[in-house]
Design a protein that fits this description.
It is built from eight helices and no strands. By secondary structure, the chain is an all-alpha fold. The chain folds into two domains: about 90 residues, no CATH class; about 100 residues, no CATH class. Helix 5 crosses helix 8.
Length: about 220
């Protein structure tokens, strides 16, 4: 039985390598575009199982275990699986709430410009005035956006300053080191207004330095 498994693995070595590389690429792309592994892994599993199911259905006359899986056949089955999984994903309700709770309080911003720059850079995840572009209605992008907003509001919500915001004091340091907004936020022109010029970035840091609660 072991010999049979090794023989089948050897026969489908190219397909296995392609699958591993594809999975690695998907995880890498997910990281770049901000798609959390909690979504990437189930999607990969769903696509993999659907690909195999479609392949077996197309070649069911070959018996329960095909001895060889042609790469082109797997590729076409994989493309069909992508379409199927994408369509099924649209039925998942998560990510379609798009709620904006009432504003209950904001920091005493140093200047109006400070607030404007923060709105452009941070309010789409850390406020109650989140903008929901068209792609936030399309899974899995809707899932990623919803999770980013939920996580962002949990860490610090700049429009609920009537209650303690434990991570607000890290705002200056986080912006200064460039980890917020994250690189994927302005990827391929998305949220282009958050792509601050050098002068705007300096003005934002000056404003945050003089806004109570934004530094440790």
């Amino acid at each position: 039985m072991l010999q049979r498994f090794i023989a089948q693995l050897d026969a489908n070595r190219g397909t296995a390598i392609a699958a591993v590389l594809g999975a690695a690429a998907a995880v890498a792309i997910g990281a770049v575009v901000g798609l959390d592994p909690v979504f990437v892994v189930p999607l990969l599993v769903a696509i993999g199982l659907t690909t195999w199911g479609i392949y077996r259905w197309r070649f069911r006359h070959l018996g329960p275990r095909p001895k060889h899986v042609p790469g082109t056949t797997v590729a076409s089955s994989g493309l069909a699986a992508l379409v199927v999984v994408f369509l099924v994903a649209q039925a998942v309700p998560y990510g379609r709430d798009h709620s904006n709770p009432p504003i209950t309080g904001e920091p005493a911003w140093a200047t109006a410009q400070t607030r404007d720059l923060m709105v452009r850079s941070c309010f789409d995840c850390h406020s109650n005035e989140v903008r929901w572009p068209w792609f936030t209605n399309v899974a899995p992008f809707s899932w990623a956006t919803q999770k980013h907003v939920d996580d962002g509001r949990d860490k610090v919500n700049y429009q609920e300053f009537d209650r303690p915001q434990d991570e607000a004091e890290e705002t200056f340091e986080t912006v200064e080191e460039g980890s917020m907004p994250p690189p994927y936020y302005t990827l391929i022109g998305l949220h282009s207004d958050a792509d601050l010029s050098s002068a705007e970035f300096s003005a934002l840091l000056d404003g945050l330095r003089n806004t109570p609660g934004m530094t440790e």
